[in-house]
Amino acid sequence: MNRAPVTFPFGSLTARQADLEVLLTDGLGGFALSSLAGVPTRCYSGLVASQQPPVQRRTHLVSPLEELHVGSPGGARETTLHALELALDEFEGEGLRHLTGASLSDLLPEREQLFAGVRVRRRAFMPRGSGAVAFLYEVYSREPVTLRLGGFFVDRDMHAVHERVPELSFHASGAEVTVQGQNQTRVQVHAPDAQVTPLAPRPVPQRVHYRHDRARGEPDFEYTLGSPLWALHFPAGGGRAALVVQAVTPDAAQVPVPDPWAAFDEEAARRRELAVRAQVTTGVHDDLVATLGVAADAYLVRRTQPQGVTVIAGYPWFADWGRDSMIALTGLTLLTGRHAEARDLLGTFLRSLHRGLTPNNFHDDGQGAGYNTVDGALWLAVALERYVTASGDAAFAREALPQLRDLLDWHVRGTDHGIRMDPADGLLLAGEPGVQLTWMDVKIEGWVVTPRHGKPIEVQGLWLAALGAESRLSAALGEEARFAATLARAQASFAAFWQDGYVDALSADGTPDRSVRPNVAIALALPDTPTHPDLVAATTAQLEAELLSPVGLHTLSPLDDRYRGNYGGAQVQRDAAYHQGTVWPWPLTAFVELLLAQDEVGRARAALRGLSGHVLEAGLGHVSEVFAGDSLRPGGCPFQAWSVAELLRAHVLVSRAEAQAAGTQSPA
Description:
Elements: E1 7-11, H1 12-15, E2 21-25, E3 31-35, E4 46-52, E5 55-70, E6 77-80, E7 84-87, E8 90-92, E9 99-105, E10 108-115, E11 118-125, E12 132-140, E13 145-157, E14 169-173, E15 176-180, E16 184-190, E17 195-198, E18 204-209, H2 211-215, E19 221-234, E20 239-248, H3 260-282, H4 287-297, E21 300-304, E22 307-311, E23 314-315, H5 322-334, H6 339-350, E24 361-362, E25 369-370, H7 376-391, H8 394-413, E26 420-421, E27 428-429, E28 443-444, E29 447-448, E30 455-456, H9 457-476, H10 484-493, E31 505-506, E32 512-513, H11 519-525, H12 533-546, E33 548-549, E34 552-554, H13 571-577, E35 583-584, H14 588-597, H15 601-614, E36 626-627, E37 634-635, E38 639-640, H16 641-661
Antiparallel strand pairs: 1-9, 2-3, 3-4, 4-5, 5-6, 5-13, 7-8, 9-10, 10-11, 11-12, 12-20, 13-19, 14-15, 15-16, 16-20, 17-19, 18-19, 21-22, 23-38, 24-25, 26-27, 28-29, 30-31, 31-32, 33-34, 34-35, 36-37
Helix pairs in contact: 3-4, 4-16, 5-6, 5-7, 5-16, 6-7, 7-8, 7-9, 8-9, 9-10, 9-11, 11-14, 14-15, 14-16, 15-16
């Protein structure tokens, strides 16, 4: 097995593309985001740190300030190595001009620039648990050079921008500068190979344009305060230096970074171990598994209230969501060999159950949660059974089984938002006016775009799977199943969803919604959904003809009059299209499962090719949240948990099927 890092090189032209973004995370909900070349493109760019992990996130740094001086003072040539966009394609700084290329090694970025014969390489990373981003510089020069380092600073909620110059004060003390706003930012320089001259901070307002926010109809510029803080004088031959920018949170709980090079080596080794563990766990020893195994780590973070592992649904703007966490659990943890995190993640949401419901999302302010989801708790049951099957953890199964039974009991007798078992047929009813409950959950100023009240088909598949999980876990523990009769009755009633083709939902009075959506694939791919091979084949053919795209499934058939092929513009425009034709990657795995169930291995691999290639098209090494229905341009979060997790799961399923078809041994 190759234990060298998986490295993706990018030439200078490709590396300049603003749509190629790099994500670094610290395991606490904090992150550092920029384009591959280091240009900030969103209000979320720079260093974002969590005040109450993983929420209450604030932005501290937009970009390092980097100036290079080559030659003697009398004949020096000077340039800047950073680049900030002032307006579309207009820049302050020469950083893009000097770019020779970039690379990712296990998704750690390195940028190289050339000016006047001097090469400067910059690596970036976030030490675990630090709330810090570190930039490591290597300078190669035939003559003495000076590198001036500082930053462009802000202090604000990560979702906001400074429309006026921020009120920040700078306090310098040798190799450390504190930037004080409502919160503190600690900036340190390390330069073992250079003479360091502290510079008196002279912050200057700098306007910055965010092109990706402009495209989303959001405020697209802000004011920062920029200042050089140190001059690093390198002798002929060059040397190395590091700039560490760290948020100071109220409890000062972050891990210090006394030696950034040792911290980098530790992080690089940790990522290599994650990649290898994913390959060993899955038995699929390719670069895609290694890359997605590293990418998966970004979404697993520690939560303080309630304590435990949780999942950031997407970067840069989502917090942790219950439905997303449970759907993503298999790919993020079980296929990457991280059973301890899977157990802790399940525990986080089991402890947060309320009247049989799991949180749809924890609030960004760290206070409480929203429970407006019918499928989140059912996905929890599915994830629980998958974990126990993969880990053999009978002790946890015995501990969790009473909670699963209580969850099901609440659904039988009825809980919030009209969620209850229909006594007439044993299927699950859900819905109340003005509340969105399924994964198609957009609400615009009181308008629930796809309400799907009644009996959505994927909710019935999940209901059956949750009931089935209770039966199988009970049997494994030598206990009597308590919901076997309920399962049998609901399975017998599922035939109501076939009416010359599967319907997407039944209203409370039985009226069918014949919208062609991917939800039927989700239902049919679950273990307890009754069907017939001919019906699966017919449904698969229809989904392939109407919903399948190169990167996922349309959320509504383009043949439907309500179809919206453009996902872009202001939020109201995006949300109106969100589930009305926009392509989502994560349901593609269910479609692949239907193909594999029919031994259509070649078609299954073909269905994944476009999405597998997408990992180097937007959020590098990751998978986007959505794609516009017509153009297939990536949209939403460029880094999405369930997109990454389900691509990994689908790729592993198909790889194992290919190995079996070829007659080779593939570990389970």
